[in-house]
Each structure stands twice: as structure tokens, then as C-alpha cells.
């Protein structure tokens, strides 16, 4: 049995190594083909640039320090919008579960808000909160909070009624029911909502910076478009991809840690 398990683990390691190697080779092929296409004018280098040109652009802006304020501002706005959207959405979902009357009242409004293109609210936030940090965070919040409420509240309602009945038979209060059954049973959905919110927060921030910012990676993209510097546009997108991946991996690490604890229960 022990040898069989060892062979199984070895097989999984080989598959994982093969997947990573294939991904790496595909990435290198893509970069190499793009570089060759740009240098040999198979594609228009003014529009599509090529990797070495973007690397030089990034290196130059990192060396003179001009990119770091843009990265810092965008990451700050994203983290604030992400955290506020997740915390506020989870709190509202808990409130709706706690008061079924409220959930019946607000259910149609949530459906309408979810179907709306929240980006269209951007001009209202800009007028109401001013052209700056607050309006960008508000746009991000409008995108993340509704999804968080709907995902987590639906999970609260889908908890197995058998568990709820057992806990109630032992005389548990509503608070104990929430702490011992509803919240632990919803951990996987809460964590998966965090992962969804990472992407949504980035969308909200970049759209907000398109509309109003004078600082941030979204602003750099718009500026690059206005001066027809698509190397700047594409290098800004690479920075966004790298930082968003780091943020996603941090949430994935949190997921593994919390889900292991949840399974052990």
C-alpha cells in the first residue's frame, strides 16, 4: 500500500513537472515569435511593439523611478477596493441571512443592480466624490460588492438544513448557528469569491483611472494611447498582469490555509 502511494505521488509530480515545462516552452515560443515578428516587420512594431522594446521601456521607467508612483497608486486603490468590497459584501450577506424580511425586500434590487453595467455609474461617482482616489474606489466597490453579496448570501441559504436542525435541537441561538454552521460551511465559497474579486477589483480600478486619474497604470495606458506610444501601453499591461498574478497567488495561499483548517473540522 505504501509503495502504491509512493508511485502515485511520483506520477503526480511527473505530471506537474510536464505541465510546468509545457507552459514555460509555450511562453518562450510566444515571446520568441512576437520578437521576430516585430523586428522583421511581419507585424506593425508601432502598434504591437515587441518584447525587448517593452523590456527596455520598463527598465528605463524602473531605473528613473517614474513607474513606481503609478504602480503604488493602482495597487493601493485595488487593495482598498478589494478589501472593502469583500468585507462590506460579506457583512450585508450576513445581515440578509439574519433578517429574512430584509432579504425578501432587497432581493429584486440586488438582481437589478447586478444586471446593471456598474461602469456606467462612474460619472456619478466622479461628480459626487470628486475626480480622484475616492471615486475610483467607489467604482471598484460598485463592481465587487454586489457579486460578493449574491455569492455569499446564496451559499448561506444553501447550507444543509440537516445541520441546522441538529444544532437547533441542542438549543443553539441564531448567533451560535451562524458561527458554528453557516459561516464555517461557507468558507470555500467566501474564499472563491475573494479570487473572483481580485479580477473585478482590477477591472474597476483600471476603468476608474481611465476616466479620471492623473496617476496610476490605467492613466499610463490612456496616456500611451493619446501619444501613440503602444510600447508604453503594452508594458503597463505587463505590469498589471504581474501584480494581479501576485495578488491572486496570495489569495490562493490564503485559500489553501483556510480550506485545510476547514476540512480538518
List the helices and strands and how they pair.
Layout: H1 2-39, H2 45-48, H3 51-63, H4 68-98, H5 100-115, H6 122-129, H7 133-157, H8 161-169, H9 174-185, H10 187-212, H11 217-226, H12 230-264
Describe the protein:
The chain is mainly α. It has 12 helices and no strands. It starts with a helix and ends with a helix. 26% of the residues are buried.
Give me a quick take on this structure.
By secondary structure, the chain is mainly alpha-helical.
Q: Return the string of H and E elements.
A: HHHHHHHHHHHH
Distance N to C terminus:
27 Å
Strand content: under 5%
Q: Taking Cα atoms only, what radius of gyration do you get, to the nearest Å?
A: 23 Å
Secondary structure class reads mainly alpha
Mean pLDDT: 88
The count of DSSP E runs of length 2 or more, i.e. the number of strands, is 0
Distinctive features:
265 residues, mainly alpha, 12 helices, 86% helix, flat
